[in-house]
Amino acid sequence: MTRAHLQSTQERTMPRGATLPALLAATSVDAQDGAFYGPQWPGNAGGPPGEQKPWGTLRDPDAAARLWSVSEQLTGVTFA
Length: 80
Description:
- With 80 residues, this protein is mainly alpha-helical.
- 42% of the residues lie in helices and 10% in strands.
- The chain has helices at residues 3-13, 20-27, 61-75, and strands at 36-39, 49-52.
- The mean pLDDT is 82.
């Protein structure tokens, strides 16, 4: 493993690397509306960002409704 490869690997698995999927989704001309982006290594444990199937809890409408409600309560902002 080269030093450059090791550094690149560390950057993608460290907290600052966690922003890469959001950055890809927000800025890439190839990003699709409604798609979910995350790390591409096995187990979603790191790696370069790319499109992936959302985890089960992210597809749960009841969990989404609870998250929305709690977010409104905590922020004091209500969306219609």
